[in-house]
């Protein structure tokens, strides 16, 4: 069983992935809901996410990984810890929803030197608005987005727009047209 296959199984076991009738923050109605934090904050889930993303990021040579608060925080932490334990560290950062109104007044928290090639991660992609916010912030900071990794692609326009704009997008799981979440065949055994 691959990490992605076990992630899907664990998401169902932990109630992170539920089927029923739900309204998303975008106002769209859906037959399933993915609460990524129930997966990424779970000890086994964090370990699986860290390992799966390391396998995706290592070949690209990316040394920084970040994404939007709150959803990306446990993902980037899992990647950083896994990378450190493997001896090939990847530093994490987060992108705030808005500029911090005190202290250093940062939009990006963490160390991302100008010119750095980074990865942006998120748990779920619907319209892609939170991913695009993170991308815009790091590009304005002078960095290049070398990869975008999403745990679950709802296939409701966001991933298509990311690809249309030329981003190297990888999705571990995806929704079928019938609203069933499955492992992306690229990550299945």
Give a short summary of the structure:
With 189 residues, the protein is α/β, with parallel strands linked by helices. It has helices at residues 3-14, 36-40, 43-57, 73-86, 129-140, 158-164, and strands at 17-23, 29-34, 64-68, 91-95, 108-109, 117-125, 144-153, 169-175, 181-183.
Task: Outline the structure in words.
This protein is of the alpha/beta class and 189 residues long. The chain has a single domain, classed as 3-Layer(aba) Sandwich (Rossmann fold), CATH 3.40.50. The chain has helices spanning 3-14, 36-40, 43-57, 73-86, 129-140, 158-164; strands at 17-23, 29-34, 64-68, 91-95, 108-109, 117-125, 144-153, 169-175, 181-183. The protein has a seven-stranded mixed sheet, with helices on both faces. A two-stranded antiparallel sheet has the order 1-2. α5 links the parallel β6 (117-125) and β7. The longest helix has 15 residues, at 43-57. It is globular.
Question: What's the topology here?
Answer:
Layout: H1 3-14, E1 17-23, E2 29-34, H2 36-40, H3 43-57, E3 64-68, H4 73-86, E4 91-95, E5 108-109, E6 117-125, H5 129-140, E7 144-153, H6 158-164, E8 169-175, E9 181-183
Parallel strand pairs: 3-4, 3-6, 6-7, 7-8
Antiparallel strand pairs: 1-2, 4-5, 8-9
Helix pairs in contact: 1-3, 3-4
């Amino acid at each position: 069983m691959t990490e992605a296959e076990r992630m899907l199984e664990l998401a169902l076991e932990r109630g992170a992935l539920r089927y029923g009738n739900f309204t998303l923050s975008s106002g769209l109605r859906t037959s399933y809901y993915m609460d990524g934090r129930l997966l990424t904050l779970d000890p086994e889930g964090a370990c699986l996410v860290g390992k799966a993303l390391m396998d995706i990021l290592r070949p690209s040579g990316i040394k920084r990984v970040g994404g939007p608060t709150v959803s990306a925080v446990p993902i980037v932490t899992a990647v950083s810890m896994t990378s450190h334990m493997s001896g090939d560290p990847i530093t994490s950062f987060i992108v705030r929803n808005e500029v911090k109104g005190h202290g250093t007044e940062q939009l990006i928290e963490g160390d991302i030197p100008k010119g750095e090639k980074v990865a942006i991660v998120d748990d779920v992609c619907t319209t892609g608005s939170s991913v695009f916010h993170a991308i815009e912030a790091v590009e304005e900071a002078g960095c290049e987005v070398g990869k975008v990794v999403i745990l679950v692609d709802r296939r409701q326009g966001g991933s298509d727009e990311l690809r249309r704009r030329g981003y190297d997008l990888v999705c571990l799981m995806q929704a079928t047209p019938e609203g069933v979440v499955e492992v992306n065949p690229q990550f299945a055994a």
